[in-house]
Write a structure and sequence with these properties.
single chain; 11-stranded mixed β-sheet
Length: 314
């Protein structure tokens, strides 16, 4: 395929408060060997906003989108996706260094498989150890997320593209037509479990998610952020509960909520009162939004062609 006939890929890179990592992330995008890119850097404001603006200005072909307030992962990514014009949209973050051939490898696969809605690759840490190569979700009475790499100390070489039921939001090549059909990230999630919900929703509509091992990225060191643990815990609990209400089989809901909204709350009350308070806030949020989520559940059930994955199959 000649360069002129290649589809346009929009890169949406989300950043917030780690300018010391952003330079490497942007340089890795600038070094991509795929010739047809538009790059949108979406910035959720932080005390480091001026430093981030200055860094992005070093890349004159990149466009900076400054959010009016911190809209979280979902708000920032959704705005970038909204302004993107490519057939494919590659989303990544300020702590990810994308290998030069990664975008080209994912696009080549997506062009060969029209049923694939999301492609991703393999994340290494700074020592070259695989930490993420997709995974598998189980929405049962116990929530399970199995990640290849993180949860597999030993596994055979990953030689060719393979299907998964979970792809991390730190590295996704999305098909625009699927986003237009099924929507992007849920705006009310803000952060955490947003990628889980998106993957499950796409799977329920008969789409496939594929890991392309030749597409590589490196995860930079995780550094402290300005987000408080209470805020993180609130969104983790809230979004997991919402994902279950939207997508889990009805038969598992009583056990799941008894375990996570009841027993977990009692455990945290004695061990971690701050986490207990965050969980209680999440339960209030779910209660207030229950009628809306239930209506959405019914709408999703009516539109889905496939059932939610029922087992982990690593």
């Amino acid at each position: 395929m000649s360069p002129g006939s290649l589809p346009l890929v929009s890169v949406v890179l989300l950043c917030h408060d780690r300018p010391q990592l952003l330079v490497d992330a942007l340089q890795s995008i600038a070094a991509q060997r795929y010739p047809k890119l538009e790059v949108l850097v979406v910035h959720n404001p932080s005390p480091h906003s001026e430093a981030i603006r200055s860094i992005v200005q070093q890349f004159p072909d990149f466009r900076l989108i400054v959010m009016p307030h911190n809209a979280g992962y979902t708000g920032g990514m959704n705005e970038g996706i909204r302004q993107a014009t490519g057939k494919y949209i590659y989303i990544t973050e300020e702590d990810m260094v994308t290998a030069p051939d990664a975008v080209a490898a994912m696009v080549a696969y997506m062009e060969s498989d029209p049923q694939c809605a999301i492609a991703s690759g393999i994340h290494d840490d700074q020592c070259g150890v695989i930490v993420h190569a997709g995974g598998f979700i189980q929405l049962g009475g116990i929530y399970r997320l199995f990640v290849i790499g993180r949860d597999t100390p030993v596994f055979p070489p990953l030689l060719g593209p393979f299907c998964a039921s979970y792809i991390t939001g730190a590295m996704m090549l999305l098909r625009r037509s699927t986003i237009e059909e099924l929507g992007a990230f849920r705006q009310d999630f803000f952060m955490y479990h947003d990628d889980v919900e998106l993957c499950v929703r796409f799977l329920r509509h008969g789409k496939t998610l594929v890991i392309v091992p030749s597409a590589r990225a490196k995860t930079l060191a995780n550094l402290p952020t300005a987000k408080t643990s209470a805020l993180i815990n609130f969104h983790k609990f809230k979004n997991l509960f919402a994902t279950y209400l939207l997508h889990a089989p009805a038969g598992v809901l009583p056990e799941f909520f008894a375990r996570y909204a009841g027993i977990t709350l009692l455990r945290h009350m004695f061990r971690d009162p701050a986490a207990a308070l965050a969980l209680l806030r999440a339960e209030f949020w779910i209660t207030a939004n229950f009628p809306r989520l239930l209506r959405e559940r019914k709408q999703l059930a009516a539109s889905c062609r496939e059932s939610v994955p029922s087992a982990i199959t690593p």
